[in-house]
């Protein structure tokens, strides 16, 4: 919403600067988002008078002018001018040296330029007499702009042209339709400063003898959607341009001037908030206006020349034969004011906000009028506004206002009464306001306040809320008004309550937090990726994807069913930006559609799960002076998962070694936590890498964090340290290649007895000196005695037992070390 | 009757003097070894004198023995000192590595700047006694709009602003629905913050994203006031942005709070002088808040007469780009390692 500071000042006795006004308005809840000084581009342009004009001695087309730009003629500036229409005695627009001319008419793009002192064919020139085009206020570039003879020499051009205004761009919140006009904003400024609101005087224009009722009848068929319809008529108007002050006002608030009738309707809307519509009376068939719903499939062409298909819930303004306007949204091309118009009907109505909102949305047509109607205008302001508009039109376009106003208003909408308790006000705000304060604040915004009852305990006001404030519905709304007018910044900043732990449920996220710090400490970068991905990719990962009905683009049309696509996208992005050695992790949600009955998802049918994703690619370590580089492999990602689980206090984890690989990953290992499948790790398949255009191998893990959380908080338990020396023994076996190390390890533990605490694989060897299909695996066994020092023979017995068991189970042969 | 009467006494004194003299001539490990052999070895000078002690009359033995022990310990300490000196000398002669070689690096990781901001905000509010609650991102119309007092035809409920999954299911547009879910499951007093990811149907640009994060706060009890809301927000802002900030509150509008406010602080980029970040106003808007609307309490079945409460919400991305001076919001979702490793 654009508000002219010059006009604002007319409605409030406000003498301070525009910056002050902006600050006060902002503090009242009407945020001034931008302050735009309008005449700024005309800095250093003034009104001048050509006191002498002589032909240039060396150029036919140039004139050497003496231009008076201040009171004294002795200080006249010599300016060389190339325009054919420059004459002695003219008042002209002069750009002084240093001024930036907004448009250069000798430049194809009209680029601005700065005026300097120059010599033109040997004659000095100290400025420039400008054309409309050069000033950026019109398109005429043929000759200089000749100003009105009354223009005062030395005045800034901005002031002379009425462009020395400041415009506030105000972000009006949806609850304040009353502030979508100058009077509304003025009311707030007046209330905040204690100044008087100056309502525009009603201009009394003599009315013609003829009654409007002789020429026009109005019937409203749908009073629910059109509770009030007022109209006046003006005959014998001459359509033409509006006076320049009115055009300047409209330009300032961002409306294109059209003609003296339409401009007045717009002016009154921006002044009082009432949208008005002018019809060409000659084009209203049957001297009749009917407000009724459209018929289904009816077609209608609006003012902007677009044809719309209507539906029966849309309210239309019709004459005896046809529709002439979409009520409250836009007029029709068939009844538009034209140069030939001589009589007009001015409509000033109150339409139901819901009806207008629906129509505007269905037609995809939003106008200044519809925006005001759908937020709610003042139902009791229609007549005042239409009379003001009629008087102004009569003034600018001549014409006679017909006697009387047609006003169809079957059921008056009266002011709402709301009770306000002083105690409640102070209880909500934490203030100590008294009755007098509250009364003062509310009456400053036209709320009538009457004491209903008062007792030692409380005083209660009956507040009558004007109909231009549809947002004030109940007590809390009035409390906000009190707070606003008292000033939010005048309410003390308290922290009263002591911290109260009653009934507090602290949810700690130990798993995610512990994981994050572990990853950070181990050189991983955390990523946060978009949850919305493209449908084709999503379907590779799950058949039960959650689709967005109205996506921004195909690339973001489905909620990710896995973290893997996000991670691969990140790898791809980094690869293309020159980083190929990556260690990334992400903690985020995945989304899937589920049967509405199953599970305890907050929104039935939609499952969200927090997951941890890890991906590594490229070199594990860069080549340094102390290390060779090495490309990551499956055992890197496996080691990451193992170490992470140690860190986050989780030991009930089991790896599942699949026989086959999926289309997504190869070398896949399943992860089971507490007996529940909770994720996987593996090498990304080459098909998937190709799909994401990734060059290097990528290893990933994806784990459901919920299944870790379900374990609850667990604390590692202390165990007694042994007082006796522990014993290390190494054993190596020759086993068939196909035997899994994990199985051998399990068997060693099984046969090793209770003193065997740890088994570490320290060597795997295949090849030279060994038969084909045989590998050598070597373990370091760690025996920890509990009650006494172990003897060699005890250890020998234990290892022999292990060797026998392994031999028996896997056909393994003990290798001499 | 002094020990000096006996020849052994003068021999001890002579040997002491000889040892002193000889020690000054020790310059190498070889010299030191010669010194040791001469005085301290099994057949060295001192051992020889101990042998002679055996022949001394008994009444003289204690005195001379004491002298001899003194001699031995003195010569030993001479030896130790020389040994130490030579040892450190010889170490200096060892080859010193090029100490300017880079150290063996440990990997350095980073948390995403959004996580860092979220953690900092959460730390402040949890220290004030706020618990942390979470809610679904795929939300129903009731929790996202209706229970929060959005009228049925509110523009935010439009397809233009919200991503829909079905007619009544959508991607939450703010973290406020978690307020409703918390109040549905719990009676006051309630004091929670609710961080999370939200979605808006907005074109992606340097200044706006279609997916971002918010932190919501809710405090409901018997006597929660607007004044205390302000106090809490000021305490937070001073902790998070620095105790020297200036701040102001402006009336605003949210359907689910009344009175509603927005809080501005002095721009911490330019200290209030005006810069592009604060659009030359010197102020930055940091959050929206207000007293919970009675209609919201009615929806969750609370008695809106007896309980009052406040709620607040702030965007994490905006705070993050402001405090790190990041010029483009989109960088936060690109996950470029060269970007991430800066924070």
The stretches of 5 or more residues of chain B where confidence is low (pLDDT under 50) are none
CATH topology of the largest domain in chain B: BirA Bifunctional Protein, domain 2
Task: Report the mean per-residue pLDDT of chain A as an integer.
Answer: 90
Shape of chain B: elongated
The stretches of 5 or more residues of chain A where confidence is low (pLDDT under 50) are 500-506
Q: Helicity range of the residues of chain B?
A: 40-55%
Query: What is the straight-line distance between the termini of chain A?
Result: 89 Å
Description of the molecule:
The complex is a heterodimer of chains A (817) and B (343). By secondary structure, chain A is an alpha+beta fold. Chain A starts with a strand and ends with a strand. With 343 residues, chain B is of the alpha+beta class. Chain B folds into 2 domains: 7-95; 113-340, BirA Bifunctional Protein, domain 2. Chain B has 12 helices and 9 strands. In chain B, the strands form 2 sheets. In chain B, strands 1-4-5-9-8-7-6 form a 7-stranded mixed beta sheet, sandwiched between helices. In chain B, strands 2-3 form a two-stranded antiparallel ribbon. The radius of gyration of chain B is 42 Å and the shape is elongated. The chains are: A alpha+beta (817), B alpha+beta (343). The interface between A and B is large, with 91 and 89 residues.
List the helices and strands and how they pair.
The complex is a heterodimer of chains A (817) and B (343).
Chain A: E1 2-4, H1 5-11, H2 18-27, E2 31-37, E3 45-55, E4 63-68, E5 77-81, E6 91-95, E7 100-101, E8 113-114, E9 118-120, E10 123-125, E11 128-129, H3 132-135, E12 146-147, H4 157-160, E13 166-171, H5 182-193, E14 207-211, E15 217-220, E16 228-235, H6 244-253, H7 260-272, E17 276-280, E18 288-293, E19 299-301, E20 307-309, E21 315-318, E22 323-326, E23 330-331, E24 344-350, H8 353-363, H9 368-375, H10 382-397, E25 400-403, E26 406-408, E27 416-421, H11 422-429, H12 435-443, E28 448-454, E29 459-465, H13 475-486, H14 510-521, E30 525-526, E31 532-533, H15 535-541, E32 546-547, E33 558-559, H16 564-576, E34 582-593, E35 606-617, E36 619-621, E37 630-631, H17 634-647, E38 653-657, E39 665-673, E40 676-684, H18 686-691, E41 698-704, H19 705-709, E42 727-736, H20 741-752, E43 756-766, E44 774-783, H21 792-810, E45 813-815
Parallel strand pairs in A: 14-25, 15-18, 30-34
Antiparallel strand pairs in A: 1-13, 2-13, 3-4, 3-6, 4-5, 6-11, 6-12, 7-8, 9-10, 16-24, 16-25, 16-26, 17-24, 18-21, 19-20, 21-22, 22-23, 27-29, 28-29, 31-33, 32-33, 34-35, 35-41, 36-37, 38-39, 39-40, 40-41, 42-44, 42-45, 43-44
Helix pairs in contact in A: 1-5, 6-7, 7-10, 8-9, 11-13, 12-13, 20-21
Chain B: H1 7-24, H2 29-40, H3 45-53, H4 61-92, H5 113-127, E1 131-132, E2 138-140, H6 141-144, E3 169-171, H7 177-185, E4 190-199, E5 211-221, H8 226-241, E6 247-254, E7 257-266, E8 283-292, H9 294-299, E9 308-315, H10 316-324, H11 331-334, H12 337-340
Parallel strand pairs in B: 1-4
Antiparallel strand pairs in B: 2-3, 4-5, 5-9, 6-7, 7-8, 8-9
Helix pairs in contact in B: 1-3, 1-4, 2-4, 3-4, 5-10
